[in-house]
Amino acid sequence: MNITYPGRRTTSVVARVLTAVAALAFLGGALAGCSSASGEEKTNPNYTTEATDSFPVTVEHKFGQTKIDAEPQRVVVVGLTEQDILLELGVTPIATTEWYGDQPYAVWPWATDLLGDAKPAVLDQTDGLQYEKIAALKPDLIIGTNAGLTKETYQELSKIAPTVTSIKGSEEYFSNWRDQTRQVAAAVGRSDAGDKLIAGVESAYTDAAAAHPEFKGLTATFSQGTPYEGNLWVYPDGINTDFLTDLGFNMTQGLETYAPTAGSQAQISAENIGLIDADVIVFATESPEGIGDLLKFGTVSSLSAVTGNHAIFTDAELAGAIYFLTPLSQKYVLEHLVPRLVDAVSGVAPQSTEG
Question: Are 3 and 9 in contact (CB under 8 A)?
């Protein structure tokens, strides 16, 4: 899988190029009446918790602020990862959005137990936001903190139902996971629970880092697993790299110079592969075939991290958990990646997705 837009990835098989969609004028009148802010009481039978905040609540975000009059019961996720946050808060969305991986209901294995028997509708942003399908679901809240929303698409969604986006100053797809968690939790009236999710993940990283002081100060690089369009897509410091820095690693510096836009991945050509060498490299490969393709690209096979068995080649689920970077997926990352990092630091990491 390879990214072709800021913050996320796509492949020639499953393209996920999220384009800014022009406002659909004819939808305005038809959708304006679909919001369920009428005060009508509804109960979502799949919720496992109750709101602790008092409604109405107002959530500030990059496009202004959104008032939510009552606890939402029909939550639609138009972003790529927010279902994780909602499910861990005990709030089951009525619709999710497919990103990649073709997981049932767009919910990955680390979250399926929380989904239970619910069967949310699945949206797709390949050709833009599906306004009519969203409206037909009659949501009373739309969550899009990781949806690449523009002001125009936010305004269109707001005609359907109250819509919450990422905070002011955030990137379209790299909004900080803590900020996203707080936004989502506030929107569904579970602010305290959101704070607890964040604190739990931070504590888990602190414990893992303390248990492995050998990580501290070592350099690390995080890269997608196979080249795309003549480049390897590598993550500069601060772009989806918390899962390594929170364990004590220092990210390889200078890669942002090769990012086409601020906040996006660096595009490293075959002749520049030496720039990614580090004490440890994590490649988000997803199959044994992906490892083969990667090792044939430029000088990857001769990097000291690769020849010294300091490189990790992930399987599909671990790669997905790293890309999601939600509180829930990070617990999966800690469980499955830390033992592999121990091997990589020790120089005994195998060239295998199985670890």
Answer: yes
